[in-house]
Amino acid sequence: MPSDSSVRGVLFEADERDVERMDVWEDVPVYELVPISVETADGIVEAFAYIMPEPPEHYEAVGDGCIAAIPIREIMDELDRLRTVG
Asked: Facing residues of 68 across strands?
């Protein structure tokens, strides 16, 4: 990723089992897990991010210049479901 680009996100510490679960959530191979450098308040951290190599056919604005390939209502419903399961 060019050094002049940035995205907002969340940095998680994850083990192999967590990554397997995230792969399902991120719909691998639609998204790919790639190495990145993340600038944090404590300095640069090496991490991984899910990217979509091809732009989605559908997306919707979810606020403040952000887009989602999955309708936001579907995302929120799934998060609510996961909260009750977990």
From this structure: 60
